[in-house]
Amino acid sequence: MSYKDKKVISIGAVSELTGLSVRKIRYYEERKLVFPERTDGGTRKYSFNDVERLMEIANKIEDGMQTFEIKEAERKALKKEKVRNQMLRGQLNAAFRMRK
């Protein structure tokens, strides 16, 4: 696991790093755009990847996108990636069978 994936940053530190209010960060979590882990005591913990993700979200919002549009665009991108991976897998399988 990369250091960027480790959930170790508090919401206060994320707020300072991103310039986003704690309230806004919690709102993006409610909208299922970011997924912090929770400690046993309920404290949110974020990763450096989450910080980058929040900055991307903030930039998209600043450009006029709505949260539902961000989610929809990401859903479409994941669907395209899945189709691309399936096609690549099929091409590899076809090429491998031809060598036998």
TrEMBL record:
SMART domains assigned to the protein according to its UniProt record, in alphabetical order: HTH_MERR
Q: Which domain of life is it from?
A: Bacteria
The UniProt record lists the keyword Repressor: yes
InterPro entries (alphabetical)? DNA-bd_dom_put_sf, MerR-type_HTH_dom, MerR_fam
A molecular function (GO) held by this record is:
DNA-binding transcription factor activity
Q: State the UniProt keywords alphabetically.
A: DNA-binding, Repressor, Transcription, Transcription regulation
Under which name does UniProt file this protein?
A: MerR family DNA-binding transcriptional regulator
Q: Which organism is it from?
A: Bacillus taeanensis
